[in-house]
Amino acid sequence: MEKHHVDLTEDVGSSPSMESPSYETEFTPEQQKKIIHRIDRRLVVTVGVLYCISLMDRTNMSAASIAGMTKELKLYVPYGDVSRYSVATLVFFTSYIVCQPPSTVLVRKIGPRIHLSFVTTAWGAVMIGMGFTKDWRDLSGLRVVLGVLEAGFFPSCVYLLSTWYTRFDVGKRYSIFYMLGCFASACSGILAYGLMQMEGLQGLGGWRWIFIIEGVLTCVLGIGAYWALVDFPDKAHKSWRFLTEREAKFIIDRVDRDRGDAKPESFNAGKFFRAGLDIKIWAYALIFCFSTTLTYALAFFLPIILSENMGFDTGTSQCLAVAPPYAFAGIIMYTTGWLGDKYRVRSPIIVFNMVLCLIGLPIMGFHKNAGIRYFGVFLVTAGANSNVPATMAYQANNIRGQWKRAFCSATLVGFGGVGGIAGSLVFRTQDSPTYHLGLYACIVACLLNLIIVGLVTLKFWYSNKKADRGEIQLEADAEDAQPGFRYTY
């Protein structure tokens, strides 16, 4: 395991035998912890709440579907080999994937406060428009626009968080960030069920109110985000007096000491796209892709599967059948994130999550008792969703250089969109009510993740050994070389 760096969260006052950093004399350990906790409250909570509404807006199609949208817009009609519903869900990811790389460049240029608050408010307006669609083609078109806008959100948040925290602080922060999204998934069914009760109000169906009210809520949060969000560390002391200049320098020194890439670099297209030559970036992307195949399949189809396969009625599927598994996933997610940071490991966490899924999927799909199948839903939901922040921390620990990190964030989340397309298609209407082919596809995704993690771990182990012998310098393509850097596995 990686033991070359001091954990700056557990003991922020300690340091290896190097020249004394400025923050040791500027702030006491207690003051340092207070600064970091202030950042947690302001940054992690704000982007987490925004991601909460983002995930709710992205995945409320299943709730609207069983609330009457499928019948009113005739989404059950086949379109080629898939249903119109599947088309409307997957077109979102076409624009979502294409628009990922420019987003991480744009957020660095104009700043996260303007960028993130604008895209959030804009997609809220699109959500409101979805509540007034009259045709499935209009719905699909708005989903494409939604993909353009949301493409700028998730990779920007991943990148922004990575610039504020050291490598062994970031795991639990990513977990909290994504855990708030799971909270949204847990509550979205309950909210959707409540909004369904507005059926007939102003002559609109209940499914339309799901889009309209959630869209209004998104717009409000997007506007408020302009004042709540913070900028990158090098500009943080200018963001509504969030940090003093001395406190901002403490953060920059702290991150720079950990991985040597805290200082902003001028944009260079060659440097940005040259990161694509690093094979491990694509390994992270594939792990993320197979993980999101599971998470999106659950988000889009779990209420439908619970209704058709397990016999729950609509209200139960929306509320009790969806909320508990996501609440359980939140507990597993934070626990594994905390353990990963404490013991400085990443790949064992991913393996554990995939094993949970491999146990849960057969139970969920093949046991004769509906209650036990529902227990399988808990395991799959926890393992799949916990693997998202685990993979984010895995790549954040093993990439150096501002623009390489930006490229990696964009690639990671872009492949997450590919997983979204797969997740939109794995559970086909013609496979109802058992959906066995979809379950087999999810099992294959888990097995592929285990294979990739195993290969990457061997690569990291071998590279670390060579670096220990002085034969190579890891991540030497970063602008400021850091001889002590080692991969975390």
Automatic annotation (TrEMBL):
The protein's name in its UniProt record: MFS general substrate transporter
Major facilitator superfamily (MFS) profile domain ranges (all copies): 43-466
Primary location recorded for the protein, binned into one broad class: membrane
Annotated TM spans: 43-67, 87-107, 114-132, 144-164, 176-195, 207-229, 281-302, 322-340, 347-366, 372-394, 406-426, 438-462
Any one annotated GO CC term: membrane
InterPro entries, alphabetized: MFS, MFS_dom, MFS_trans_sf
Keyword Transmembrane helix set for record: yes
Polar residues bias locations: 12-24
Highest taxon in the source lineage: Eukaryota
Topology within the bilayer: Multi-pass membrane protein
Xref: Pfam families: MFS_1
Region annotated Disordered, chain positions: 1-24
Organism this protein belongs to: Delitschia confertaspora ATCC 74209
